[in-house]
Protein: NAD-dependent epimerase/dehydratase
Amino acid sequence: MSKMIYIVTGAAGFLGGTVCRKLIERGEKVRALVPQNDPAAKYIPDSAEVVQGDLCDRETLEKLFTVPEGMKSIVLHIASIVTVDPTFNQKVIDVNVGGTKNIIDMCLAHPECNKLVYCSSTGAIPETPKGKKITEVDFFDKDKVEGCYSMSKAMATQAVLDAVKERGLNACVVHPSGIMGPEDFAVGETTGTLIKIIGGEMPMGISGTFNLCDVRDLAEGMIAAADNGRQGECYILGNEAISFKEFCRLVSEEANCKAPKAFLPIQIANMIARLSEMRAKRKGVKPLMKTFSVYNLARNNDFDSSKAKRELGYRTRSYRETIHDEIKWLKASGKIA
Structure:
């Protein structure tokens, strides 16, 4: 019987759930943290031990970290609040930064905890000029990244690295880029976009790029970091950048649907987004297009994953394969006809 227990936070989420399933497939013992009364808990595999708790509540984390005598633990900290709203949000900071600091303290308070793998984001890494690949950095500055989510991830990542240097924590960090693929039960932003394209609800796109990884590849990369990631090291888990136009072409071929007919230049899209935000603010509704969404398509999305490939054996499948598998899952789960 395995003497190791894998503690997974954010286990009811898209990546966390996939990590749990992959660990169980290889015969590992998994303990999953989920928020109190989270309806998504039903998607966690039955063989995982579920602990209800809150990253901001040290008492519930004590229960999560206490393992039977003679057992060791490895923590995969994935839970966070993800937001595409760039404005400051105290709850995002409390959960993403404060919650991570609580996890760090619990790892150090429990000597049976062998390792922490922190799931950061490529958003925590400062953007480089276009034409220059974005690589890992060893210091994270919240003032050098855009938006509240990226700020929170930069702060939390630095807290992990500080704990390695100052307190001897055995931890490493992974930086996933975007995420897509099958079993996105909560229908995240990328899956929602995919459904809109397939349903013909997106007559027009934007001439930009993004960087998306298959959730299964990210999960395997994270588990590889638990197995082989070096103390104090960061690993980018990204893919090749893809244009929105090329992404739509692949979706139209795999789903046998029409792709958007036109793609707005970034400058025009930005102007429309600004007007949309002003109008939405006046009417007290959500804008149809956001300047921050346009920024994410306009920015440099060329991330270098060579370190993760070299040290962790990380690999990514093709966009076509991921899109094909996600469409198949969307049909099987009744999310599209």
